[in-house]
Write a structure and sequence with these properties.
Radius of gyration: 34 Å
Oligomer: single chain
CATH superfamily of the largest domain: Immunoglobulins
CATH class of the largest domain: Mainly Beta
CATH architecture of the largest domain: Sandwich
Number of strands: 27
Number of domains: 3
Distance between the termini: 65 Å
Largest sheet: 5 strands, antiparallel
Shape: globular
Strand content: 25-35%
Helix content: 25-40%
Length: about 700
């Protein structure tokens, strides 16, 4: 772990195009129409929807490449067996299964099943049996992971004895459809009689007339309703192994993530926690994201492997970005740890202070070594702070680490860092680490109150239940009381669990309660991801005040923003980037005299002469000291003549001084840089008259 004193701020703006216009399939170039035909039984609705929203061939080609990568059974090799097999099936069905019809082979029932399941394990034909229409049975072995039985048989028949082979349905078609002389059948629902009649002609066909699953039909010989369920499972089976979220991420981030990353979306597990820090008193949003796959490179001189993660974090309120930053996580580990990393994964953790409100959190995690990207997206609600005693948490991990109190880390409270696994699944050998805060505890509650932890299993028969009572007086008192507890997973049977934390007053009444869930696995041991985080020395907590000030300003909470800017500035008046932010804010709210005072902290800074003169110029203009303002603004414009704010301020100064020609020149120069300034366009029109 590493202590940082600075954070980098970036702009992360996902495309957010999922509700965009679709290109009609008929308007696609033939190349892409052919591709949709190839994958029609394998593509998920979300994937198809995204593909039809792409507007150029480059994006479509990248999407197709990504589509195949998501299904590649051996991603470390140049071959893609899934794609090759599908192309092979497509060629076969169009060559051999469309001969008895005017339709292309992939559109027929046989073609559809062959495209979904591949060639059958065996085929039995009943083409020349007198009394029966031509039939074929295709036998398959099922995959329980796709909800398919160990064996099933699909029957195809020629309706009326002619045309293409149709997929037989025991319920909607019925055994009568398999007989040639159907007019002689008095009761088409006499399943037992029809079964016996077919049995006399072709014994193995008789059972297939009732069921697709050998041995499974009703006592009265009526077809099992599971036939329809099985067919639905069969047709859905190619789509079960792929999470379609990559498709929406491809669309949303194609304007943000560079081309070489777009085809390498990696699923991830993630978790978040809102925790109030006892040292600073601020509320932090913590997150952990664990990609399911990590590409690494070798650093030969030191016999190490390495990768480099970049996390781009943004917080939105509606469509407005109210906060964003980025951090780098370069990771090196010895070659001997590679098997552990590959098996357990790497977790990237971070945290940042957050104001009250409802937001959308987006974390774009890119591995610059492997050109992979993962995404965490979650709705976050930060409720108003309570004045009454309450519980915050519980938060779960698989162990605690002790870290110095004067450094802030993700999932750390005081000197206890919770080491998390977003899956919240524990083996019998694990400890279940439980962390929660008691907020706003009164003196009476601290002396006589309790926290009660109840762990209860969710199975119906004899569920496990454990209780733990913790006296609050056993912990150091404070407005924020942090409590940690470890529970041996070996005390719990394998099951799904809820953990309930209750805050109980001196009179025995429940003041608040919160719940979380977890799983105890029957496995004796489980691997957990290796956590990677960076700390920030609390001597630099002025940075957190600036972050909160920015968020408040973006939410137009100007009074709160002003207070936070002032706190941050007083904590460290030498942090020049913060001085620039504070000076600009003061001009924004009309505090021009204060802006001039703050700007003086930049006077001797050679690197920040441009913002120094801008802040001074705008403040002097706000005080109607136009001549002095013009001096600073002209100096700023000489340093950088492509800033529309400076040009517009110059134009305003000239206009107020009655210098229309100079004002017009400044406003026109601004419009050249940004033509979409309607207010400036109107000023130019008025001045031109």
């Amino acid at each position: 772990m590493r202590i940082l004193t600075r954070l980098a701020f970036v702009f992360l703006v996902p495309a957010l195009l999922l509700a965009g216009q679709k290109v009609p399939e008929k308007n696609l170039p033939d190349l892409y129409k052919d591709w949709l035909n190839l994958v029609v039984y394998h593509i998920q609705p979300v994937e198809r929807d995204v593909f039809l929203q792409l507007t150029n061939s480059r994006d479509r080609d990248l999407f197709i490449e990504t589509f195949w990568k998501q299904r590649d059974p051996t991603p470390g090799t140049p071959e893609n067996e899934y794609r090759d097999e599908l192309l092979k099936r497509f060629k076969y069905v169009n060559e051999f299964l469309g001969r008895a019809t005017t339709r292309e082979g992939w559109r027929t029932d046989m073609g559809r099943i062959h495209m979904v399941l591949g060639p059958p394990a065996s085929i039995e034909r009943f083409d020349a049996t007198i009394g029966l229409v031509p039939c074929q049975s295709w036998s398959y072995y099922g995959d329980a992971r796709k909800d398919l039985p160990p064996q099933y048989i699909l029957l195809f028949y020629q309706r009326g004895g002619v045309g293409e082979y149709k997929l037989y349905d025991p319920v909607s078609d019925g055994p009568v459809r398999l007989l040639q002389n159907q007019r002689d059948i008095s009761d088409p629902f006499d399943y037992e009689g029809l079964h016996d009649k077919i049995y006399d002609l072709a014994p193995t066909l008789a059972e297939l007339s009732l069921t697709r699953i050998p041995g499974e039909f009703n006592y009265d010989f009526s077809p099992s309703p599971r036939n329809a369920i099985l067919l639905a499972d069969i047709l859905n089976s190619p789509k079960k192994d792929v999470n379609p979220s990559y498709a929406s991420h491809f669309l949303n981030y194609k304007g943000v993530v560079s081309t070489e990353y777009l085809t390498n979306f990696v699923e991830s597990h993630s978790s978040t926690a809102l925790i109030q820090d006892p040292v600073t008193g601020l509320r932090f949003l913590h997150f952990s994201i664990v990609p399911t796959d990590v590409n690494v490179d070798a650093y030969v001189p030191k016999n190490q492997f390495y990768c480099n993660f970049r996390a781009d974090i943004s917080l939105r309120n509606g469509e407005d970005i109210i906060f964003q930053y980025s951090r780098e996580f370069p990771l090196y580990f010895p070659e001997s740890d590679w098997d552990r990393v590959k098996a357990n994964g790497l977790a990237v953790e971070d945290s940042f202070p957050i104001i009250e409100g409802k937001f959308k959190l987006s974390v774009l995690l890119t591995n610059t070594v492997g050109k992979q990207f993962s995404v965490l997206e979650k709705d976050v609600e930060v409720p108003p702070a309570k004045a009454s005693p309450s519980i915050e948490g519980p938060f779960l991990g698989y162990r605690f680490e002790t870290i110095q109190r004067d450094v802030h880390y993700p999932f750390k409270v005081n000197d206890r860092k919770l080491v998390t696994d977003p899956k919240k699944t524990y083996a019998r050998a694990d400890e279940i680490a439980v962390l929660f805060n008691v907020l706003n505890a009164t003196e009476d509650l601290l002396r006589n109150g309790e926290a009660r932890i109840v762990v209860r299993g969710l199975r119906e028969a004899n569920p496990v239940q454990k209780s733990y009572t913790l006296r609050l007086s056993a912990y150091p008192s404070g407005r924020i009381l942090s409590i940690s507890q470890s529970i041996p997973a070996s005390d719990l049977d394998p099951d799904y669990y809820e953990i309930l934390v209750r805050l109980v007053g001196a009179d025995g009444g429940v003041l608040d309660e919160k719940m979380e869930s977890f799983i105890v696995s029957p496995s004796p041991a489980l691997g957990h991801p290796i956590a990677n985080a960076k700390g920030l020395a609390l001597a630099n907590q002025f940075l957190y005040r600036y972050m909160l000030a920015q968020q408040s300003e973006k939410m137009n909470r100007l009074k709160a923003a002003g207070s936070l800017y002032e706190q941050a500035f007083q904590l460290n008046a030498d942090y020049k980037e913060g001085v620039v932010m504070y000076g600009n804010f003061l001009n924004k709210v009309g505090a021009f005299e204060e802006a001039l005072k703050v700007a003086e902290h930049l006077r001797a800074d050679d690197r920040r002469q441009f913002p120094y003169h801008v802040i001074r110029g705008l403040a002097l203009m706000g005080q109607e000291k136009l001549g002095d303002a013009l001096t600073d603004l002209l100096l700023a414009n000489r340093m950088y003549n492509s800033d529309t704010n400076v040009l517009n301020a110059l134009g305003t100064c000239y206009q107020r001084m009655g210098k229309k020609a100079e004002a017009l020149d400044a406003f026109k120069a601004s419009l050249t840089l940004n033509p979409n300034q309607e207010a400036i366009k109107k000023l130019v029109e008025e001045l031109s008259k």
